[in-house]
Amino acid sequence: MKRYLEDEKMVKHCIAVETIMRALAKRLGEDIELRGLIGLLHDIDYDYVSRNMSKHGLKAVNILANLLLEDFLEAIAGHNEYNNYVIKNERAKIIAHALRVSDHVADLIVVTALVMPHRRLEEVKPETLLRKLKSKDFAKGVDRSRILEIEELGLKLEEFLQLGLNSMKSI
Questions:
Q1: Total count of domains within the chain
Q2: For helices 90-114 and 8-28, what crossing angle results, to 10°?
Q3: Where is the HD domain (predicted)?
Q4: Which of 21, 22, 30, 72 has the maximum number of C-beta atoms within 10 A of its C-beta?
């Protein structure tokens, strides 16, 4: 992965999303290893697309074409709603959905940690995340609507925030 991603913050982000995807897969009874791998590799094209979100995810499919099954590639392409990729496979839709919510909650958790007194993840509590999520002036780059979609996967928001936070603290 480091061959494709030079920015250490992006590498850490991918590891955070991997960890959340693993925890979510375990909670939902899905394949932990595969979901984790998808989380780890989902932004592998970020340096190549130079923040051009219309290409993000599509270049990743080219990079990973010989490594992952088609529905996993579709999930990676489809996790970014700005590239207009239409997911055809139902399994890929569910995985992409899990990836989107994990991606956005990872960002919320990191930004929340950065405003804590000692800027440490250990200081963050689920109720703090919930409060920050409701504050529209906080972390404007975090798409709250995506995080709220967790309930479509059968989890309550509070449970997902706890799951995401615990998984990131375990890194």
A1: 1
A2: 120
A3: 12-98
A4: 21
